[in-house]
């Protein structure tokens, strides 16, 4: 290890600073040079407009209005649309501020106080009349201004809409050849009136079909309503018939449930076969007889204009 080099001697000032830095018990206290007390200092964030202090002129033109809290009430319509002009008439003003009985009878005031009261009442009547007439004239003037402004806008817009094309627009418009314009233009369909008549007939036919289907459904509902249970006697009779002990016994049979008496419910495959006309479990003759019965029922309903009711035996 090489020998350490000798350190130079410290002067008095450097020795003092070294002692202050090395001694933990001594601390340098930072002192602010501002004369403003600490409790009056304000710290503004960077987003505050007061973060950067700008000088203001002695007489600033900025007018700072105080905050207005609440809202102003909606003014009442003194002169409504119907009967509003009647308030300007003298009869309304007289009825609103009638004379006293003594004054109407022409009697003189009995005292100075009564005379002063009569003069005050006369002043109030005069002020009311002048106020009503002034408000009515202001309303008429306001309505006339609104009407004039509206008419001016209508005339201005109409003139602009009917004005010829401006020269700058015509000169700066893109050029289109006449042959190209004829090729790309959309001509009216020459058969549009025929198509419109055909569409009208189609709509009428669909409406007639909907009306007929609605009438047919209503007739079916009317026919089905004959078997609806609407009274307590019918409900009791139906319950006694279905829940008696020998409900499923017929012709000496020994059925004990609905499936034994009427068979299992029809399956989806059987229903699809019936719709397709194939049938399931029926012979050719039986299927033909069933189809003939259905056709006869439909023909009879078409001829009679109603629904047939097939009573179960």
Automatic annotation (TrEMBL):
CDD domains: mS26_PET12. It comes from Apiosordaria backusii. This is Uncharacterized protein. It comes from the Eukaryota. Residues 33-80 are annotated as: Disordered. It holds the Pfam family mS26.
